[in-house]
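[job 4471] stage=fold_predict status=RUNNING
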Amino acid sequence: MKYSRRLDSLPQYPFAKLDSILREKKARGVDLISFGIGDPDLPPPDFVNEELRQALKTPGSHNYPSSEGESFFRKAVAEWYRRRFNVELNPDTDVCALIGSKEGIANVIRAFVNPGEQVLTPNPSYPVYEHGAALLNEAHPRSFNLRDTEGFRPNLENIAKEDFKFLFLNYPNNPTSAVVDEDFLQQVSRLADEKGALICYDNAYSELTFKGYKAPSILQVPGGMDVAIEFHSCSKTFSMAGYRIGFAAGNPEIIKGLKAIKSQVDSGPPKFIQQAAARALLSYVNSNPPKEVLDRLSVYERRFMILTNGLKEIGYNASMPLGTFYLWVNVGENSESFASKLLERDVVVTPGTAFGSEGDGYVRFSLTVPDISIEEALVRMRDALG
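[job 4471] inference complete, writing structure tokens
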């Protein structure tokens, strides 16, 4: 039996490899401390789970949902955008529910990019842009570098020289934690309009921000709605990763194309999950998240302080970012070599090369482990790196 050329062209998903290592070590009873995968350890807010319990009692909640999302959920998304970003959306034409933002990012390319057409993806970046979206759909991915000297932002002058159908961007950024402002997003939107291209803007970490920074939406800047589709997830904001619920919003023609693809391949998130997610989104008052979300931001901020202070004591330059729950650290050596040293002491970090060649020399820590585990990991790291 032979795999398709499409499947053969795909490298192994880096987190599948990492998950395999973790399973093998855990099966041997190893006491692992894993900063590897961005899977929140904090539980969802109680009001989200209470809404879920009530939703399970609702007649019809077990029936097939709509692939575009239930009307009540799309209305909640539109209302959240109004409260959070002051953006007015038509819930019928500008919003689509997703089974997590990952599937939407992969599916939207199928609606607009033909085999061989070029899409631009960051390097380093979330692997789904290049692999799940571009390669799996037989598009031609071409990467642009994100470098520390430029604040891990793309060089727009270089991008303007390229011919492309779709441009992937993600801020606050995974893995680098870099952020951007509205002015940058307006420049990108203007560039896409000039090129006749579209933007896939992954804004999954918009609500994980610190030190007074608030992440913008590309849909709130002039011209953004003309060229962009924006992806959000409830996984990070509300710790609903296993619930598999997200949403896309933006240009109605792009949303229409995404809905057409999804109508052929899935039936949408379960209705009871959508009801819980709608309750979560409507918990925002004006642009302010509920206390439960603010409380978890305080937890992440404390974890950042523990880890960055500990890494500085060991000799690494580490500082708390303005967004995400990731710490991107320049380790001054090959990423995989550094990660292997820590793995020998049963501490797991993700080598930067998992996100692209420009990630070499860096590792990513995911702050999804308790304080006490971070402190123990620092003890082990001192032993491994001393």
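[job 4471] summary: Residues 304 and 320 are 6 Å apart (CA to CA).
[job 4471] exit 0
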